[in-house]
Design a protein that fits this description.
This is DUF7322 domain-containing protein. InterPro entries: DUF7322. Pfam families: DUF7322 (PF24008). It is a single chain. The chain has a domain of 72 residues. It has five helices and no strands. It is mainly alpha-helical and 146 residues long. Helix content is 77%, strand content 0%. The radius of gyration is 30 Å and the shape is flat.
């Protein structure tokens, strides 16, 4: 400690050590470090984001709405059922636990109804469009043979 001044704090010593031993070499190609020019990872993320936005804009709004509703209901149902069982088993709180169990089971039941409803929607949609698929399949072998 004789070579250091008494005014130097621990943070000053750390800063001096970092200045002496750290260099930009080896870190310039790391993603997310913030060096100018960006990185290949940032470019890949940008491309993936653009693809996702395009796919989401092309999605059927009815399917998107049903999916989001089913996810929210499933999460609420699982949380409520789990919490209710813990309240009933560990705290013997049958009143609050029973209400949460009922809410959770209703949410999970509604999730099941959403899934069944969506399957019927998809089946109806597929039944109304088989003519185009059959025409494409009948034309495809003729193109390969001729």
């Amino acid at each position: 400690m004789s070579d250091r001044s008494s005014d130097e704090t621990a943070s000053d010593r750390v800063a001096r050590y970092v200045d002496e031993h750290a260099s930009d070499d080896g870190f310039s190609d790391m993603p997310g470090v913030g060096f100018p020019g960006g990185s290949s990872l940032e470019k890949e993320i940008q491309v993936d984001t653009e693809k996702l936005e395009k796919n989401l804009s092309n999605a059927d709004p009815n399917t998107s709405r049903r999916f989001i509703t089913a996810v929210i209901l499933a999460n609420v149902g699982l949380l409520a059922v789990s919490l209710s069982l813990m309240l009933i088993v560990f705290r013997s709180s049958f009143d609050v636990g029973g209400v949460l169990l009922l809410v959770g089971l209703l949410a999970l039941g509604r999730t099941y109804q959403q899934v069944k409803s969506h399957r019927r929607y998809v089946e109806k949609k597929n039944e109304s469009e088989p003519e185009t698929d059959a025409e494409e399949q009948s034309n495809t072998p003729a193109e390969h043979n001729g």
